[in-house]
Amino acid sequence: MVESNTIRKQLLPFSYGQEKIADSSHLIIFAAHTQVGDMTVDRYIEKHAKTNNMPSADLDNFSNHMKSVLAAKTADQKQQWSHQQAYIAPGNFLTCAAIMKIDSCPMTGFDNAGYDGVLGLLEKNLTTSVICPIGLRHSYDAQALSPKVRFDYDQIVIEI
Hints:
Blueprint lengths: L4 H7 L8 H4 L2 E8 L4 H14 L8 H12 L3 H12 L1 H12 L3 E2 L7 H8 L6 E10 L6 H4 L7 H4 L4
Antiparallel strand pairs: 1-3, 2-3
């Protein structure tokens, strides 16, 4: 979460002028790991074993399988997978915000490299995936009063 107004203003040029970045009550950043491999699996297996109160050795077959799947991926495929994993969190986050009647605006339209630089994410082996300003919308928010542009069900869903 970015609390600093100074940093939010630094992010604005990388947000294509979307003022929500600076004006929202909270700015949440969801990031993906840039280094994906055996250490990713080891970290998960350790957490899984601890959470389930079991020896990590009981998960060796699972661990080996995940490591072999990741090892078969290119660097770009690993980064894409990492972003896909990061996208799981915003789904839950947005649902919770809606239940709490908190407005949100998940965004992927921003300059990742600019965000990563301002936030110092590269040094942490992370890259920005999704940004999400949240809070109560301003009464003068023209977009809030505009009709929502949504495709019809049969235009976006294929039933098989």
